[in-house]
């Protein structure tokens, strides 16, 4: 435990002094906004994943690792589905000029999604030498790999082009500016959002690539972001995945097997607004860059105080095990809170709001403007009421979370995810 560690007073044995975290931040000119990292994320939608028996069934050598997840159902897959190893998120702008073309797009996407999630090949022209193949082919012969495709529409979808303005949910508004936001237009907004998840990156990429082909002439890609977590095969214990800051990221999500809790936190109800959204959910997507170079120069003590957890075990400070209750009242021998003021888990717990996080790490190479890594978190979360859940939570975190010193939010989007598709129906048929 931290209490048994040798404390560093900031002086090296050679008489020189360590540069403090704040000095480094000042040198780099870094700002940020709340992250929502430590509360939850990938790898812990089910606490049962901590059991060796459960992790064994997720091994890549086991067929269950690659099994098919049904596309049709009461709710869209990819929301309460245990997080797969990889994600490719895509934001589309609609280029169609009529509601009939939009309807055709969603029908075509439905047919394609049903085949993709089964691991099948699209179309019938994959052996004809005289025409372009109807499927891009990179996933030919590969397993379904638990592929899910989750579709939603953004605020701009209801801007009047298709006569749908009166069907726009009151909840579906552009997210407000949060303290410290550094949004860049290349990662903001979109008419349609599609989350493709799978246990194989090539399979997930193929899904978005083919949906973009199917959409040609009706919708065009606006921005994309790939993400990853550690694969199930890399961690035979099935423990909670770690984020790029080295901390376990996925401890506090609500229990997705509790139907009543999901109705409270995730699924929109008939009483919430337009009937077409009943059984759907609001998907928040935030691209959060981590200043990894600065974080890597911070002491372990500073890192643990920032999160409010021990890095190795994931336990809250003052606790023993990862899932121990968070005790905000516990004091050390000097009378100071064991979990410091401003620690991420303290701010999140004091806020008292729940959402369902389903986030992934990302690495997009080198930022040539700064010479530093462009890496961080593709934060994806689902909630029933954005105004009462995500927005107040993020405002609180943006105001006082110690993680703000290491991060910046440079991408943001909100989508209303449709309820599930019934066989014979199509994506968005409750709206269109």
UniProtKB/TrEMBL annotation:
Subcellular localization: Cell envelope
Domain Dyp-type peroxidase N-terminal: 76-229
Cofactor note text: Binds 1 heme b (iron(II)-protoporphyrin IX) group non-covalently per subunit.
EC number of this enzyme: 1.11.1.-
Keywords linked to the UniProt accession: Heme, Iron, Lyase, Membrane, Metal-binding, Oxidoreductase, Peroxidase, Signal, Transmembrane, Transmembrane helix
Subcellular location, principal: other
Residue ranges annotated for the Dyp-type peroxidase C-terminal domain, each copy included: 240-421
Residues spanning the membrane: 24-46
Reaction catalysis annotation: heme b + 2 H(+) = protoporphyrin IX + Fe(2+)
Cofactor: heme b
Pfam families hit by this protein: Dyp_perox_C (PF20628), Dyp_perox_N (PF04261)
InterPro entries, sorted: Dimeric_a/b-barrel (IPR011008), Dyp_perox_C (IPR048328), Dyp_perox_N (IPR048327), Dyp_peroxidase (IPR006314), EfeB/EfeN (IPR006313), TAT_signal (IPR006311), TAT_signal_bac_arc (IPR019546)
SUPFAM superfamilies per UniProt: Dimeric alpha+beta barrel
Assigned protein family: Belongs to the DyP-type peroxidase family.
Function (record text): Involved in the recovery of exogenous heme iron. Extracts iron from heme while preserving the protoporphyrin ring intact.
Protein name per Swiss-Prot or TrEMBL: Deferrochelatase
Species for this entry: Paenibacillus terricola
């Amino acid at each position: 435990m931290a209490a048994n560690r040798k404390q560093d007073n900031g002086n090296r044995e050679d008489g020189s002094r360590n540069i403090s975290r704040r000095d480094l931040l000042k040198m780099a000119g870094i700002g940020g906004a709340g992250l929502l990292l430590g509360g939850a994320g990938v790898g812990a939608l089910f606490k049962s994943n901590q059991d060796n028996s459960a992790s064994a069934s997720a091994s890549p050598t086991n067929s269950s690792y690659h099994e098919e997840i049904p596309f049709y159902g009461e709710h869209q897959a990819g929301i309460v589905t245990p997080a797969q190893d990889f994600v490719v998120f895509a934001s589309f702008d609609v280029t169609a000029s009529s509601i009939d073309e939009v309807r055709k797009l969603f029908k075509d996407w439905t047919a394609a999604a049903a085949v993709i999630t089964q691991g099948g090949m699209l179309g019938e022209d994959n052996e004809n030498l005289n025409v372009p193949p109807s499927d891009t082919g990179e996933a030919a012969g590969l397993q379904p790999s638990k592929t899910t495709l989750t579709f939603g529409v953004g605020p701009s979808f209801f801007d009047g082009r298709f006569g749908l303005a009166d069907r726009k949910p009151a909840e579906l508004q552009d997210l407000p500016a949060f303290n410290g936001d550094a949004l860049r237009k290349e990662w903001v907004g979109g008419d349609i959002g599609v989350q493709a998840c799978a246990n194989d990156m090539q399979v997930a990429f193929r899904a978005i690539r083919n949906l973009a082909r199917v959409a040609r002439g009706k919708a065009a890609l606006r921005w994309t972001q790939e993400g990853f977590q550690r694969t199930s095969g890399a961690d035979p214990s099935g423990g909670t995945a770690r984020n790029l800051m080295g901390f376990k990221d996925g401890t506090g999500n609500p229990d997705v097997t509790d139907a009543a809790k999901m109705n409270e936190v995730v699924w929109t109800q008939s009483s919430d607004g337009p009937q077409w959204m009943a059984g759907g959910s609001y998907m928040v997507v935030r691209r959060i860059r981590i200043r990894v170079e600065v974080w890597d120069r911070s002491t372990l003590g500073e890192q643990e105080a920032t999160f409010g957890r021990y890095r190795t075990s994931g336990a809250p400070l003052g606790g023993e095990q990862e899932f121990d209750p968070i005790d905000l009242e516990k004091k050390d021998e000097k009378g100071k809170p064991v979990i410091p003021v401003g620690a991420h888990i303290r701010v999140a717990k004091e806020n008292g709001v729940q959402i369902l996080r389903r986030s992934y790490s990302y690495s997009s190479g080198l930022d040539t403007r700064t010479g530093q890594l462009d890496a961080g978190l593709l934060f994806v979360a689902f909630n029933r009421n954005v105004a009462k859940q995500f927005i107040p939570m993020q405002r609180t975190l943006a105001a006082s979370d110690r993680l703000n010193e290491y991060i910046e939010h440079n991408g943001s989007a909100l989508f209303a995810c449709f309820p599930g598709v019934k066989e014979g129906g199509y994506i968005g048929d409750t709206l269109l």
